[in-house]
Write a structure and sequence with these properties.
Blueprint: H1 7-25, H2 33-36, H3 38-68, H4 71-82, H5 88-98, H6 127-149, H7 155-176, H8 192-205, H9 207-210, E1 226-227, H10 232-242, H11 259-271, E2 286-287, H12 300-313
Antiparallel strand pairs: 1-2
Helix pairs in contact: 1-3, 8-11, 10-11
Bound molecules: heme C (HEC).
């Protein structure tokens, strides 16, 4: 084995086998283990150092051995080393790709011109260059036909598909990342599990001031349609998250509850609307009307009349 494969192949191969094994057996989530855990990176570097050190030691030992051998022994040893794979085909392929005449044959292709002692070689164009050029011509033809003759997709189409994909990905992400909500984006959660979770949060954090049935105590009645700080999911979420007016006793719960939990408890609070608590606290604040929901209900005639009025005034 040692005689067959040169060390510049042996070290990387051994290293990548160990590297692969490490990545395979260590569960590091999406990132590779050596990125996730610095210790793994250190370990791999150490392995690499050790592998190189082993090669260096073996090389040194061989040299010492060579000095101790008699002539016949030396010859045998060197012959064995000769059998190392030399990868001549690699060199040959490279040579072919360049398409140059070897230096010995250059006299055949030297041009007659003599520019102040500088002569020119008439080498062929390197095949890698020529074939890349042909491929680019074929590519151009196909491209021209596809996009300019048969009107393939445009960059705008491409952008739109990408945007659509991104929108889908964003929706999917929002579903998994419920804690992304804030009072601008929150919507009423109607899922029974969410409302139940909200109820549990309410029982353990809020009943002291709002009562178990939401009838109110230190805090206002949450079952009526009067709100001090505004009703609707967005305002309720905001009140829970940011707290009430200072000195009133309603703290900002964002320090203790996660956004998803605040959305749950806010949704639960809204389910209390219209229920009849045992000891309802008198209504405080104003009747709250949603300004956003009845957008379509804004009478269009009213606006039109107004414009007409303006015109008639002029
Ligand atoms: C220490 C007592 C206390 C606790 C605990 C408390 N609140 Fe309050 N809450 C109040 C007070 C007082 C107000 C009125 C604030 C104001 O007037 O600015 C209030 C107001 C509110 C309002 C707005 C009512 C309105 O009319 O605008 C909501 C919604 C609310 N609380 C929900 C909750 C939720 C949900 C919890 C539990 C996570 C909770 N509160 C815990 C005392 C409390």
């Amino acid at each position: 084995m040692r005689q067959l494969v040169p060390s510049w192949i042996r070290v990387p191969v051994a290293f990548f086998i160990i590297f692969g094994a490490v990545e395979f057996f260590i569960d590091s989530g999406e990132k590779p283990a050596f990125v996730e855990y610095p210790a793994v990176l250190l370990f791999l570097l150490l392995v690499l150092l050790i592998l190189i050190a082993i090669e260096a030691i073996i090389g040194a030992l061989e040299n010492v051995m060579l000095h101790k051998l008699d002539e016949a022994g030396k010859a045998r040893f060197l012959a064995e080393k000769e059998s190392t794979i030399k990868f001549t085909w690699l060199k040959e392929t490279y040579q072919k790709l360049l398409g140059q005449k070897p230096i010995e044959e250059e006299t055949e292709i030297i041009l007659d011109h003599n520019y102040d002692g500088i002569k020119e070689l008439d080498n062929n164009l390197p095949p890698w260059w020529v074939y890349s050029f042909y491929i680019s011509i074929i590519f151009a033809a196909v491209y021209l036909l596809r996009f300019h003759v048969f009107n393939g997709y445009t960059q705008i189409d491409e952008l739109e598909t990408e945007l659509a994909d991104a929108r889908i990905a964003l929706e999917a992400y929002k579903k998994t990342a419920k804690d992304l909500v804030d009072f601008n984006t929150v919507t009423v959660l109607t899922d029974a599990a969410d409302v139940k979770a909200g109820q549990a949060i309410f029982q353990s954090n809020c009943v002291a001031c709002h009562m178990a049935d939401g009838g109110g105590g230190i805090g206002p009645n949450l079952t009526d349609d009067h709100w001090i700080l505004g009703g609707g999911i967005k305002n309720v979420f905001k009140t829970i998250s940011e707290g009430g007016r200072s000195g009133k006793g309603m703290i900002a719960w964002k320090a203790q509850l996660k956004p998803a939990q605040m959305a749950q408890v806010a949704s639960y609070v809204l389910t209390l609307q219209g229920t009849t608590p045992a000891n309802p606290k008198p209504a405080e604040g104003d009747i709250w009307v949603d300004e956003n929901a009845p957008e379509s209900a804004v009478p269009t005639e009213a606006i039109e009349t107004k414009t007409n009025d303006v015109i008639s005034v002029e």
